[in-house]
Specification:
heterodimer; A: 2 strands; B: Purple Acid Phosphatase, chain A, domain 2; five-stranded mixed sheet; three-stranded mixed sheet; globular
């Protein structure tokens, strides 16, 4: 873990998360931003994954928990990942395709266990980070990366979770933030910084969530949780319940970043699966 | 119930004294059970009738429902296959309740070790955080993890067999023989190796837990192996049933199913502020 914390990969990954965090501060999802060709292509890639879910309905077979049709869906991605990535990466950068495709495959869950967790989500962030590193995505794309691409990714992941009844992977249960996601809470809380009237205490209010979830990722996450979980919110999402008492979104945002570092990035069960390569290398940070 | 609730209107010194007594009793209970467990052999024979239970993961109210379903100790003889702690609110209450049952009726309850009965794992998945949140220190966690070290790995229903290891992490799967586990620990093992193992050791059935099962229990490999899962509506989202496997004798088994207790029968812990947000 020490090696990981001192690595170039860690520095690049956390730098990426924090840069995007700054970029979306105080902005609604409907904010006007530039949409480059690369962004459009990534959205098209995610749309393809979505279409494959429609083409691979759940099967009526005995299973332990998750639906086995997920493995069929995953099989398509496994086979097509490099082709899909090649549609996004210009030909002169084709050498990067195999490495980048690995992160894409890691970002949708595990085929054997039919599960999904924050480690898979981190793999998608790593996928985007790699695309930035090779210059496919640029500084201008910052807002679109979160509001268009990552948001679309979340929609596809939620559809997978529901359609195939995916299991939480390595959930911390009531001691964790959420069974499946973390980053949309970080970036989502940044969106809400300095909001004129929405405070953290409002996110446990059904009316406030229903009225504002289309503009704010954090609230969309809360809506999804209340849809999928049973019982009082204070019970099934106790950490989030605690967070609703924090006085400002700014404090929520800072706290979530600290929590992400400690609970996801510095926990062996999550990081043991992280892939290192030439774009996110394990070697120590090299000084500029 | 959290001790804090009991202390409203109570002088500070009395509440501190009560907590000190709690730690003293907990430490004594853990030491007492450690001594009991040290007397047991590594391969502990257990007589039927017995009810075998899977993961609990701190779901204390559902554990109570388990006992209502299967019968209270000592009327019913039990084997718990581990994973008492982590993920749920009440890992401490769950584990200490089982320890108390073990202390009172040592020959009517067998406690095995799951992959979550470990210092490293409990520092990731919640038991450590629970102890800190409830008592402001790690004393309770330390006493309990001492017991984890001594918990048995397995039991056997009155037939001799050879020792084996690494089963706290492995899973059965439709693979040829063995395969790397996607968990990053343990292995995947298939029908062939299971058949071989069962045959060589003259067993009737391997009972294990460790994996969520929607219907509460699942037989595999021509009924040579069964997964028993005892945490209903896991993570408040999975909507699964829980089960316990009742063995009248070695040849007669019957699963008993139960659901999560309704919300009206649960207590929600009070709001706290995690250190990250101070």
């Amino acid at each position: 873990m020490g090696k990981w914390k001192r690595s170039q990969a860690y520095a690049d990954y956390i730098g990426f998360i924090l840069t995007l965090n700054e970029g979306v501060k105080g902005k609604k999802l409907t904010f006007e931003y530039k949409v480059s060709e690369a962004i459009e292509k990534l959205v098209a890639l995610l749309n393809t994954l979505d279409r494959w879910i429609d083409e691979t309905p759940p099967v009526d077979q005995p299973s332990r928990f998750g639906n086995k049709a997920y493995r069929t869906w995953y099989g398509k991605l496994d086979e097509e990942a490099e082709n899909l990535v090649a549609t996004v990466v210009p030909t002169h950068l084709a050498a990067a395709v195999p490495e980048v495709a690995v992160y894409l495959k890691e970002s949708v869950g595990n085929s054997t266990r039919i599960d999904y967790g924050t480690g898979h989500e981190a793999a998608f962030a790593a996928f985007l980070c790699c695309l930035c590193k090779i210059g496919v995505l640029r500084v201008d794309d910052q807002i679109a990366i979160v509001f268009k691409v990552f948001n679309r990714y979340l929609e596809v992941m939620r559809k997978l979770q529901k359609t195939y009844r995916m299991e939480p992977a390595g959930s911390q249960g009531v001691w964790g933030l959420d069974d499946f996601q973390f980053l949309p809470f970080i970036w989502g809380s940044s969106q809400l910084i300095d909001h004129p009237y929405l405070e953290p205490r409002h996110f446990v209010d059904e009316k406030a969530v229903n009225e504002n979830h289309k503009d704010y990722m954090f609230l969309e996450c809360i809506l999804f949780i209340t849809e999928m979980k049973t019982g009082p919110f204070a019970e099934h999402s106790n950490q989030l319940w605690n967070i609703s008492a924090v006085p400002s979104w700014s404090k929520v945002n800072q706290g979530l970043i600290r929590m992400y570092k400690a609970e996801c990035l510095e926990k062996f069960p999550v990081i043991q699966h992280f892939k290192f390569g030439s774009l996110l290398p394990i070697h120590p940070v090299t000084s500029c | 119930k959290f001790f804090k609730d009991l202390f409203i209107g109570v002088p500070w010194w009395l509440s501190q004294l009560s907590v000190a007594f709690y730690f003293l009793f907990l430490q004594r209970l853990c030491d007492y059970v450690c001594d009991l467990l040290l007397e047991e052999s590594n391969v502990q024979p257990v007589s039927t009738p017995v009810t075998v239970c899977g993961d609990i993961h701190g779901q204390f109210y559902d554990l109570c429902e388990l006992f209502r379903t299967g019968g209270q100790v000592p009327d019913t003889n039990y084997i718990f296959m581990g994973d008492f702690v982590d993920r749920g609110y009440y890992s401490l209450e769950t584990f200490t309740y089982l320890l108390a049952l073990k202390a009172k009726w040592p020959d009517r309850i067998t406690l095995l070790r799951g992959n979550h009965e470990s210092r490293q794992i409990t520092q990731v998945y919640g038991f450590y955080d629970e102890c800190q949140t409830k008592y402001g220190n790690a004393n309770a966690w330390r006493y309990c993890t001492k017991v984890f070290d001594i918990l048995l790995l397995y039991f056997q229903l009155c037939y001799p067999f050879r020792a084996f290891c690494d089963l706290v992490w492995s899973d059965p799967e439709d693979v040829d023989t063995w395969a790397i586990s996607p968990r990053g620990a343990g292995w995947l093992f298939g029908a062939k190796v299971t058949n071989e193992f069962v045959h060589i050791n003259n067993l009737k059935l391997i009972c294990r837990a460790h994996q969520l099962v929607h219907e509460g229990y699942k037989f595999m490999f021509d009924e040579k192996l069964v997964t028993v899962w005892s945490a209903p509506n896991y993570c408040y989202r999975c909507g699964n049933i829980a089960s316990i496997m009742v063995f009248k004798d070695v040849n007669t088994r019957e699963p008993k199913l139960f659901r999560a207790v309704p919300d009206s029968e649960r207590v929600i812990p009070p709001r706290t502020t995690t250190p990250y947000f101070l």
